Protein: Substrate-binding domain-containing protein
Amino acid sequence: MCRKCKVLILWLVLVLILSGCGHEEVWNPDNDITIVAREDGSGTRGAFTELFALEQEEGGKLLDMTTLEAQITNSTAVTIGTVAEDEYAIGYISYGSLNQSVKALAIDGAKISEETIKSGDYQIARPFNIVTKTYKESSEVADFIHFIKSRQGQKVVSEAGFVSLEADADYKSSGLSGKLVVGGSSSVSPVMEKLIEAYQQANPQMEVEMQSTDSTTGVTATLEGGYDIGMISRDLKPSEGSRGLQATVIAVDGIAIIVNKLNDLDALTSAEVQKIYLGEAMTWEAVTQR
Structure:
């Protein structure tokens, strides 16, 4: 290649590099919000709609008034991925599932953390429950629940990034052998997976299978006998309890309101989040006109 050609190529490369400098895309609040919500049956959606007053009574029933413009996802992982890839998106997930790919907003002046959830400063929180039919205290189900509520079990809860409860006494291996099937909420699944791993280390003869679905399935499959233990990321409804289920709180979880990391905002009020999910504000500019 001749010297003149080499100089020309170098010059073109330099022009291309310089033309890219200082021209990064700027986040524009005039753009439409991509509203991301969970599917019907999700305990996270149920808790979110209740906490942000998105329900409206009609004909004696509470109806979820989440805007039909919302993009529906069927798991925590899909919600995180959707928001991470769309700079104008907003969504909600379990605090214990929060990672560095998205940004959690402060709500009503409080940032989400284990400390603010425990203190009540961050009020967007709900219990993680497991549900069971009546069981014998000598059964495999009872033994697993004893482990979850013990010092060892609640240490697992805390180390998994969730808010632990006041623990019962230390757990001692039962020496039981058998199999349990646990299933339900995908929000509870990450902490349950850790609890199962620790329990099986203490009880090598026990097999615990986990199926990640949703809270509604956690209830119905437990009632029908498909699950020994159901996972729900909300309170047990009175209508569900009347059918023979009992709930046990295993942890407390905050609901993180997440946006893309390029979003200029760091905080919203509860009223502003409600405004978005009711479809009353369709751009970020409309939300932030305070």
Observations:
- The two ends are 63 Å apart (CA to CA).
